[in-house]
Design goal:
This protein has about 250 residues and is of the alpha/beta class. The protein has helices spanning about 45-50, 90-100, 105-115, 130-145, 160-175, 210-220, 225-235; strands spanning about 5-15, 15-25, 30-35, 60-65, 65, 75-80, 150-155, 180-185, 195-200, 205-210.
């Protein structure tokens, strides 16, 4: 089965600044792939390129077998931006039902999406009265209501309490087990262990593209944050990180 996303030699310039520097990576189908890196590393730019709303300088991005941004992908790809993308003067339920109609879905699917993100008790509240974390979850419900094949989530757990973060990650893995592909960005390194595969980006460069266990093995440490530090330092030094001796 082909990968859900294939990025080849992607370069993005913004003015005189190179934001992405010849990125090549893949996102396997039916997995939760984490896009990790500090703020300003190029995570959002890469996600925008996958969605097809980013002007690229060179390189290619293929999504579900089609060029990124192709019209036929609009109902197959869900996208959650960092900024809430819901209507403040509508309730959570009304927002979800509106987006459900756009995807040819009914009220039941909309209400289920609201419940899945932990907002069933707040379904009748105006979005404008919600906390920042609740608004983010309302946006997430709207991104999921169309049951997309590929879901792009930009910092979906920012501002969420630990219990809800755990619930959301459990939901992401349930979706992946059912065949949905998820690309989830985060600058919180402890979320790396929750992913099936990791893309580590720093200063517009891809530092790692592997499973958490492979990253641990390559660097010789079990703590992923320490592993990332080793990868970054090795990259800056222009050498491969020293790992454990192999049998």
């Amino acid at each position: 089965m082909e990968d859900a996303v294939v990025v080849r030699d992607l370069v993005v310039d913004r003015g005189r600044r190179r934001v992405l520097q010849s990125i090549s990576c893949t996102v396997p189908r039916g997995t939760v792939t984490g896009l990790l890196g500090p703020s300003g590393s190029g995570k959002t730019t890469l996600m925008r390129a996958v969605v097809g709303v980013q002007t690229v300088t060179s390189g290619t991005v293929t999504v579900l077998g089609r060029p990124a941004g192709a019209a036929e992908l609009r109902r197959r790809v869900g996208y959650l931006t960092q900024a809430p993308s819901v209507y403040a003067d509508l309730t959570v339920r009304e927002n979800a039902r509106y987006f459900a109609v756009l995807h040819g879905r009914g009220h039941a699917e909309a209400d289920r999406a609201v419940a899945d993100v932990g907002l069933a008790d707040a379904a009748g509240q105006l979005v404008g009265t919600l906390s920042g974390g609740q608004r983010s979850r309302a946006s997430l419900a709207c991104a999921l209501v169309g049951d997309p094949e590929l879901v792009i989530l930009d910092e979906p757990t920012v501002g969420q309490d630990p219990v809800l973060r755990a619930d959301l990650w459990a939901r992401f893995h349930e979706m992946a087990a059912a065949g949905t592909t998820l690309l989830v960005s985060s600058h919180v390194m402890d979320e790396a262990a929750r992913c099936d595969r990791l893309l580590l980006v720093r200063e517009g460069r891809l530092i790692a593209d592997d499973t958490p266990d492979a990253v641990r093995a390559a660097t010789g440490v079990d703590d992923l944050e320490q592993a990332f530090l080793r990868l970054i330092r090795a990259n800056e030094a222009g050498r491969e990180p020293a790992g454990r001796e192999r049998a």
